[in-house]
Design goal:
single chain; 317 residues; alpha/beta; Arginase, Chain A; 16% strand
Length: 317
């Protein structure tokens, strides 16, 4: 059994906001990180404060600061409609190399899944999708989980070393993720390598571009229908993983990201997709990555993620 508390550090106490008002309780007053509270937790928050993968991918660094910055905004929100017990495990200890950090992350996430917890993972760079996806495969088996990458980019780059652009190619090539169980959602064609697109197309990966999302009446309609068809083909519901890269959101709504773009999901569409993830009974992980507080404006990006976390916690099936 993995020692969760040995491989992680507790969150800073200063992030747990309190108004000291009995008529206006905040999440910072009810969420705890004391080890004795872990067993009763339904939802666990876990951070990975590193951006080495972003640096390797020539993105702008700063995402290492995101888990703490997001927590500051999340714990200022109210407790309304949150019925589940939420526990903050803190952050995975960062190793000497990105690969060692991924190994630690995989071990921690796999143990949390074995313990029956739902996870909110806070990056850090999007390379942690590899660690989280590998944990899903090891916990449930490659044939029993669905991966959803909501991102402006496909993240199936060919590279000499793992980085924030390679996680899903790693998962696919290593057999942790079945192509027909993988959904690329919200990608923008002007950011998409023809070689990378042909790779996922030839494998049979499900592809829902930003343009296709926009052609539907609601942001989640196309994804909802495709996943419903996948469930119909199985005798039991599949476990689901949602990776939300904040680069998928337009920069007017989320300026503080590793690779901002003037085009992308609107904030409301982003929240709608998070609520859809919460509505699925077997969603095990929602992951938020590529938030860069150094470039944020009025905390727009960290506040958006904090609200998304709130909607996930209050909307779990």
């Amino acid at each position: 059994m993995t020692d969760l508390f040995e491989l992680t550090t507790r969150p800073d106490a200063e992030v747990f906001f309190s108004r000291n008002d009995v008529n206006d309780p905040r999440l910072g007053e009810v969420v705890r990180s004391d080890p004795e509270r872990y067993e009763s937790a339904d939802i666990v928050i876990l951070g990975c404060p590193q951006d080495e993968g972003v640096r390797r991918n020539n993105g702008r660094t700063g995402a290492a600061e995101a888990p703490t910055a997001i927590r500051r905004e999340f714990y200022r929100l109210t407790t309304l409609n949150i019925k589940k017990n939420v526990f903050d495990l803190g952050d995975v200890k960062i190793g000497p190399t990105l690969e060692e950090t991924h190994d630690s992350m995989t071990a921690v996430v796999k143990q949390l899944l074995f313990d029956g917890k739902r996870l909110i993972v806070l990056g850090g760079g999007n390379d942690i999708s590899y660690a989280d996806g590998r944990a899903m495969a090891e916990a449930f088996g490659p044939e029993w989980w669905i991966g959803v990458n909501i991102d402006a980019h496909l993240d199936v780059r060919i590279a000499a070393a793992a980085n924030s652009g390679t996680p899903y190619r790693q998962l696919l090539d290593e057999g942790h993720l079945k192509p027909d169980h993988f959904y690329e959602v919200g990608y923008q064609t002007h950011f998409t390598s023809p070689v990378d697109y042909e790779y996922i197309r030839d494998l049979g990966v499900h592809r829902i571009s930003l343009e296709l999302l926009r052609s539907r009446t609601e942001a989640e309609v196309e994804l909802k229908e495709q996943i419903r068809q996948k469930f119909i083909g199985h005798s039991a519901s599949l476990n689901t993983f949602f990776g939300f890269d904040l680069d998928a959101v337009r920069m007017s709504d989320a300026p503080g990201t590793s690779r901002p773009s003037p085009l992308g999901l609107r904030a409301g569409e982003f929240i709608q997709l998070v609520k859809y993830a919460a509505s699925l009974a077997n969603t095990r992980i929602v992951e938020f990555t590529e938030v860069n507080p150094q470039y944020d404006i009025d905390h727009r990006t960290t506040k958006l993620v904090a609200i998304a976390m709130h909607r996930f916690c209050s909307g779990i099936a």
